[in-house]
Amino acid sequence: MKVLIADDAAFMRMRLRKLLEEAGYEVVEAGNGKEAVSQYEAEKPQAVLMDITMPEMDGVAAAREICQSDPKARVIMVSALGQQAMIVSAIQAGAKDFVVKPYEPDRVIGAIAKWTQV
User: Smallest Cα–Cα separation from 75: which of 105, 103, 33?
Assistant: First the structure.
């Protein structure tokens, strides 16, 4: 199963990639929201882990665009505490779930498993 990681922090993408690959997932990456939208269209991942705060296009706008083009998209927001208003916006934009940074590995894997079994 393929998962798209969208985060402007290279170290965060690297940590998530390692976690997901060890759990048996194939991973593709995007460094901002605009890249995430084009990677989603090109790669057709089964799930997306999307940071909220990114350059060029934030995660909420990217989630909205992805969910409008694919209503079945499984976008999971990954954000720091204190961004509750942005999380609400992301859910309204079509995101299915959110994981708070710093995240527990089991929470990330659990969120992907939950939404890809539907």
Answer: 33
CA pair distance 26, 98, nearest whole angstrom: 20
Predicted confidence (pLDDT) per residue in 96-115, tens digit: 999 988 889 999 999 999 99
Counting DSSP H helices and E strands in the chain, the numbers are: 5, 5
Phi-psi region of 46 (alpha: psi -120 to 50; beta: other; left: phi over 0): alpha
Q: Which two tokens stand for residue 109?
A: 């894997």
Distance CA 48, CA 46 (A): 7
What does pTM read for this prediction?
A: 0.94
Please write the tens of the pLDDT for every residue from 46-67.
999 999 999 999 999 999 999 9
Q: How far apart are CA 63 and CA 54, in angstroms?
A: 12
Nearest to 49 by CA among 92, 90, 83: 90
